[in-house]
Amino acid sequence: MTIQHYGTAEQRKRLLTDLVAIASISESEGEKHFPDAVHSLLSQWEYYKTNPSHLYHGGRSGDEPFLSAHYYHSSHAKTLVFISHFDVVGIEDYGEYEPLAFSVDELTEAFARDAQQFSHAVQKDIQSGDYLFGRGTMDMKAGLTVHISLLEKAIANRWPMNIVLVTVPDEEVNSSGMRAAVGYLNHLKDKYKWVYSLFLNSEPVFTQKPDDENYYIYSGSIGKIMPGLLFYGKETHVGEPLAGISSNYMASFLMNHLELNDALREVVGAEKTPLPVSLYQKDLKQEYSVKTPYRTAPYSMYFYSNVQPMRCLIFFKRKYTSRPHDLMKRIGIYANENKSKGSETFKFLIMSNSKPTPSSTTVKRKLPTGKRKFILAKTLMTARNPS
């Protein structure tokens, strides 16, 4: 990547293509080496040859491998911060196109050639010629491309402000890059007595509803929580399903109620937070066997703006104390239909930091002080088989 001028659309397209070509999947070697490529690119600029200390590679300083480049104007304290991430999600979902996932030109040509196999909406985008395809083009190396172009323009025209470009790893997983970059941003602010006036995050625009063709500028911020749950059942042989209870079956009752639940959607003015969705739901068996799963762990994503996360905890507690009734009723029907298996007695244990609502079907217990306020739903079962 030796191009040093990004004033035209074609130049920015070429830069984007070069950035996408670096397979910076989260927690991969490509993610570790991506800052090296951008550092090499920017260090060729005359400004950074003259001011090498204005380039910072966290990975070379014993920190997370984020990259920062700043433009300094001695007469102004006002500072803009450009924020982006360079890690991308995996490419398994590309199927037959997986070998082309990081080759923008080749993948775009392949999609155009095979356009008929895509939906009408995708065909329309392909045929327009206005779109590029490849892992990371949208989320979010196009944003980094724009930031680099703006940084170059600010330096060339001596904009009367300061600019800090920060691009970080690990956004798709644990946000360790951004959390590490905060310390460096504070260091720059204290060193130069800067005032951070705007943080510009160039993430892609998302539709608010199907077929939404509007473009949005987002202001402010949004919170997210990912409650982790554990459903604990009792294993049994597949040939004796009523001698135990599958944790997958238990989890399905609650997750069916929480998924896309509008009651967990916050309304702020004319805006609504996205509906909650499950990001992970899997039993914890390590290999195939004919035993039913007895441990299942899901977690979901919930967004909030003004309401505190405790609201979600209260909602979960309320639903957990009601869902077991439905499950017990269903199991009871099966048990009654098969008397030869004996009667089944089920007890449900709901654990949280707060006192649960009294219920004849729940056993109540407090978690030790300091535990996270996640709810742990656990089922205990005792079986009495006839002699």
Structure notes:
Helix 1 (9-20) packs across helix 6. The protein has 10 helices and 14 strands. It starts with 8 loop residues before the first helix and ends with a strand. The protein has helices spanning 9-20, 29-42, 46-50, 104-113, 120-128, 137-157, 176-192, 247-258, 310-320, 323-337; strands spanning 55-57, 67-71, 78-85, 162-168, 195-201, 223-225, 231-232, 267-268, 271-272, 277-283, 295-304, 343-352, 362-366, 376-384. The chain folds into 2 domains: 9-90 and 135-201, 3-Layer(aba) Sandwich (Aminopeptidase), CATH 3.40.630.10; 223-384, Alpha-Beta Plaits. A hairpin with a 2-residue loop joins strand 8 (267-268) and strand 9. It is globular, with a radius of gyration of 27 Å. The strands form 4 sheets. Strands 1-2-4-3-5 form a 5-stranded mixed sheet, sandwiched between helices. Strands 6, 7, 10 and 11 form a 4-stranded antiparallel sheet that branches. A 3-stranded mixed sheet has the order 13-12-14, covered by helices on one side. It has 387 residues and is of the alpha+beta class.
